[in-house]
Structures are given as structure tokens and as C-alpha cells.
């Protein structure tokens, strides 16, 4: 078979073929990784909900809804149920008031408005200072822990602002922001049957 001449049409044809093969390969790889990434994110979400919400046997992600908060925004709420009865909520909350901006948390409440647990999902706070939030506010020492706090009696504030929560040492801004995210989470469920008996949220 004779060698193809290096003419412009032949070069264009060869490049087109290479691009088509590469495009198909990239498309297949993207589809595979997209599915894997989606599955990983779903697993992370389920684990975060399971960590913070009271015990449940339903699938909270199937029953999720959006609830308005005081600033006009809305947050995603995952209802936790056992044998068909509501046991509490997991709320995906956030604030942009961190020392380095965005802080995202998953916060769990029982049906009486008590904070069951929390998990920090994302933050860019200073290592060794604001980054301590995931451990600091769950440590049963002095007035650090927010676990078990009853938010029906009032929102959480650091002691410097007249509240009763000890801020992270040298990281008051991060501490305020973390509590803001917690309070926003409570705001999302406080109009539901979690605390008031109303049934506007499902």
C-alpha cells in the first residue's frame, strides 16, 4: 500500500479521526467519573445525616424539603423518622461570615428543638484556630459544647456577645460564624412541628 501524501486534506482527515477517537474516550471517561463522583457525594451526604440526626429508619434524602430562614434564604432539611414517626431533623446550613468566608455544616435536632449533633462539611478557617470548630464545640469542657443545647430557649451566642458558649481561643470570628450557621439551621425547622406544633413544613 502506498504511503499517503502529506497533503492538507489528508492532514485534516487524520486530525479529525484523532479528535473523534479522543472525544469518544473523554466522553466515556467523563460519564464514568461523573457517576462515581455522584455516588461518592451521595454517600458523604448520607453519612453526615446519619452522624447528626436522631435514630431513623427512613431515607431522609427522599423526603428532603427546603425551608425559609429569617434572611430570606432557604436551607435543605432532611426529616428523620422511625416506624413512621418523626424523630428529628438534619439541616444543611451555612454562613459566609467566617474569618475566611464560607462555613458549611450539617446540624441535627430532635423533635423538641435540642441540638443532637453537628458535622462541619466545609470551611477555610485558619489551621489551629478556627479550624478547631469540629472538636471544640463538641467537647464537654466549661461552656464549649453545644451538644444537647435547647434552642427553643434562645439562639446560641459566644460569651463575648452576652451568650453562654465559650468561643475558640483567639478565634472569636470563626466561633460567631459557626454559631450563626447553627442558628440558621434551627431557624429552618423552628416553624415546623419540631417546636411549635405547626404543620407548614413536611
What is the compact description of this entry?
Helix content is 33%, strand content 23%.
Describe the structure.
With 202 residues, the protein is α+β, with helices and mostly antiparallel strands. It is built from 3 helices and 5 strands. Strand 4 and strand 5 (115-123) form a beta hairpin.
Strand element count: 5
Task: Describe the largest sheet.
Answer: 5 strands, antiparallel
Order of helices and strands: HEEEEEHH
- Shape descriptor reads elongated
Helix and strand composition category: alpha+beta
List keywords for this structure.
single chain; 202 residues; alpha+beta; five-stranded antiparallel beta sheet; 3 helices; elongated
Topology (elements, then pairings):
Blueprint: H1 8-52, E1 65-68, E2 74-82, E3 85-98, E4 101-110, E5 115-123, H2 133-136, H3 172-189
Antiparallel strand pairs: 1-2, 2-3, 3-4, 4-5
Amino acid at each position: 500500500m502506498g504511503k499517503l501524501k502529506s497533503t492538507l486534506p489528508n492532514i485534516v482527515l487524520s486530525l479529525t479521526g484523532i479528535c473523534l477517537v479522543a472525544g469518544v474516550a473523554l466522553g466515556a471517561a467523563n460519564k464514568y467519573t461523573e457517576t462515581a463522583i455522584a455516588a461518592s457525594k451521595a454517600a458523604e451526604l448520607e453519612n453526615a445525616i446519619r452522624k447528626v440526626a436522631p435514630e431513623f429508619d427512613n431515607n431522609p434524602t427522599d423526603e428532603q424539603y427546603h425551608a425559609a430562614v429569617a434572611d430570606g434564604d432557604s436551607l435543605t432539611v432532611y426529616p428523620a423518622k422511625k416506624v413512621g414517626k418523626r424523630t428529628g431533623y438534619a439541616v444543611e446550613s451555612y454562613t459566609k461570615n467566617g474569618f475566611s468566608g464560607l462555613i458549611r455544616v450539617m446540624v441535627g435536632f430532635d423533635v423538641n428543638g435540642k441540638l443532637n449533633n453537628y458535622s462541619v462539611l466545609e470551611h477555610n478557617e485558619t489551621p489551629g484556630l478556627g479550624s478547631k470548630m469540629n472538636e471544640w464545640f463538641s467537647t464537654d469542657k466549661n461552656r464549649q459544647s453545644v451538644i444537647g443545647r435547647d434552642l427553643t430557649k434562645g439562639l446560641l451566642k459566644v460569651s463575648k456577645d452576652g451568650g453562654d458558649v465559650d468561643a475558640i481561643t483567639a478565634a472569636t470570628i470563626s466561633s460567631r460564624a459557626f454559631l450563626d450557621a447553627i442558628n440558621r439551621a434551627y431557624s429552618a425547622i423552628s416553624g415546623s412541628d419540631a417546636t411549635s406544633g405547626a404543620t407548614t413544613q413536611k
